[in-house]
């Protein structure tokens, strides 16, 4: 046999053996395993915890000169983008995985972007084969159906990462009526000039359309006021998540020296107690009387009424195909293609996770160069509450419902138009430069997210 033929046969043999080994180490977990256990096994074999945790176990070659730089970079970027621990713990405990985590992993599996090629070329068993992908995607679908049922959407859209706003949520009407009064009552501020509605106007889409809101004595806040509409669906309140509930959020501004300036709720109770008619009405609903707990509870119940269902997008998800134009539907597809529907998931299309501002480019550096605006306390985001360095510049993702009405945008209120907000999000969060047509399509879609309040399309008096 010629030497060249022997070489060819040897190469074929090596490839064949390699293929056999590759198939062997990439075998999907058997169907006999429980579904959650199968998914955990795929994640473990896929090496998710090699990069997407705070303290990964490094391989023996991690300190080799060339490998050190590559591995360190991958670990830093991986953990910055996604912490896999909460998801894996939830699966192991049979609990609901955060909707954003589900959406992120689903998009990654569908795109085949993880694990990185340079990882699975070394760790053969980590490759995400089609069978493993199918197992994972089916599990995500079943997990959503179990923990995040979507009965309002037609079957075609039942597994979307976003869900329609329900027509109503449960609340106590008597408490909400009192909360309505308190929400608009300037007696909650030290000088009687500021109410909740001052910065979160009901007739101005739940915001004031200012970069920073004005509190007592003309003082300006440090972050842009988020909308109160649909805040019920947020997993925490405030940009930095310092309030776990609507009632906790309602307790913040009255005692903030810049916003409403009261020294304590005792001061507020004393002022309200002078109004005998109000006290009598209040005590009928809250026999325990006026206090921080009852005042904020009433406001929270009122805010539960501030939801905006029946947007054109919601009607589309419910099966009304002509509720959106072809370009708006194309915008929704782009919204998903560019991973917007991962962080902006759930009913409120956001508000379910803390995300890094500037995942793919340095937002704050660019802002400083363009606006000569340095960092502020408000820019620290979640870090202000945790002191964990990874949380610096992370913010609770804003919900996108009624977004065309809630300008200016971002935590710093620095972006005036929806088009610019979309263009910049693509750059800083996804690492993409959108075409003008793509920007127009996506913003067209976002304008379909304006819902109804009390049966009427939500409007903003500042735009009239």
Low-confidence runs: 13-22
Structural shape = globular
User: Could you give the count of β-strands?
Assistant: 4
Q: Count of DSSP helices?
A: 21
Distance between the termini: 88 Å
Order of helices and strands: HHHHHHHHHHHHHHHHHEHHEHHEE
Walk me through what this model shows.
It is a single chain. With about 475 residues, this protein is mainly alpha-helical. The chain has three domains: about 5-150, no CATH class; about 175-305, Cytochrome Bc1 Complex, Chain D, domain 2 (Orthogonal Bundle), CATH 1.10.760.10; about 310-464, Orthogonal Bundle (Cytochrome Bc1 Complex, Chain D, domain 2). It has 21 helices and four strands. It has helices spanning about 5-25, 35-45, 50, 65-80, 85-90, 100-110, 115-120, 130-145, 175-185, 195-200, 245-255, 265-275, 275-285, 290-305, 310-315, 325-335, 340-345, 365-370, 385, 420-430, 435-445; strands at about 355, 395, 450-455, 455. The protein has a two-stranded antiparallel ribbon with strand order 1-2. Strands 3-4 form a two-stranded antiparallel ribbon. β3 and β4 form a beta hairpin. α2 crosses α8, α9 (about 175-185) packs across α14 and α16 packs across α21 (about 435-445). It starts with a helix and ends in a 7-residue tail after the last strand. Residues about 15-20 have low confidence and may be disordered.
């Amino acid at each position: 046999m010629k030497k060249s033929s022997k070489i060819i046969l040897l190469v074929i043999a090596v490839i064949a053996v390699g293929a056999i080994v590759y198939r062997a180490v990439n075998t999907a977990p058997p169907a006999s395993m429980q579904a959650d256990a199968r998914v955990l096994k795929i994640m473990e074999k896929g090496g998710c915890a090699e990069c997407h945790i705070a303290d990964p176990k490094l391989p023996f070659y991690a300190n080799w000169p060339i490998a050190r730089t590559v591995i360190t970079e991958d670990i830093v970027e991986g953990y910055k983008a996604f912490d896999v621990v909460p998801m894996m713990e939830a699966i192991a405990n049979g609990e609901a995985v955060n909707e954003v985590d589900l959406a992120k992993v689903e998009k990654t599996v569908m795109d085949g972007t993880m694990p990185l090629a340079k990882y699975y070329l070394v760790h053969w068993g980590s490759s995400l084969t089609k069978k493993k992908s199918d197992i994972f995607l089916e599990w995500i679908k079943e997990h959503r159906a179990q923990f995040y049922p979507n009965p309002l959407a037609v079957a075609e859209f039942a597994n979307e990462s976003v869900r329609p706003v329900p027509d109503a949520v449960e609340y106590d009407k008597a408490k909400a009526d009192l909360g309505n009064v308190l929400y608009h009552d300037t007696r909650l501020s030290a000088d009687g000039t500021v109410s909740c509605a001052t910065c979160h106007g009901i007739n101005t889409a739940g915001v004031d359309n200012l970069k920073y809101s004005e509190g007592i004595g003309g003082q300006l806040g440090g972050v842009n006021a988020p909308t109160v509409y649909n805040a019920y669906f947020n997993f925490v309140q405030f940009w930095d998540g310092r309030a776990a509930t609507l009632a906790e959020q309602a307790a913040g501004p009255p005692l903030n020296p810049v916003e409403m300036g009261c020294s304590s709720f005792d001061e507020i109770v004393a002022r309200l107690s002078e109004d005998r008619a109000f006290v009598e009405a209040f005590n009928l609903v809250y026999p325990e009387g006026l206090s921080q707990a009852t005042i904020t509870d009433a406001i929270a119940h009122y805010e539960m009424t501030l939801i905006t269902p029946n947007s054109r997008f919601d009607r589309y998800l419910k099966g009304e195909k002509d509720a959106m134009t072809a370009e708006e539907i194309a915008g929704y597809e782009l919204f998903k293609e560019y991973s917007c529907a991962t962080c902006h998931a759930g009913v409120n299309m956001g508000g379910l996770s803390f995300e890094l501002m500037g995942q793919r480019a340095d937002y704050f550096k660019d802002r400083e160069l363009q606006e000569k605006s340095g960092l502020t306390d408000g820019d620290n985001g979640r870090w202000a509450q945790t002191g964990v360095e990874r949380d610096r510049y992370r913010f609770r993702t804003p919900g996108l419902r009624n977004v065309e009405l809630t300008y200016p945008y971002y935590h710093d209120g620095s972006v005036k138009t929806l088009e610019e907000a979309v263009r910049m999000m693509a750059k800083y969060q996804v690492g993409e430069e959108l075409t003008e047509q793509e920007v127009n399509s996506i913003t067209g879609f976002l304008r379909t997210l304006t819902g109804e309040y009390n049966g009427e399309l939500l409007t903003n008096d500042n735009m009239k």
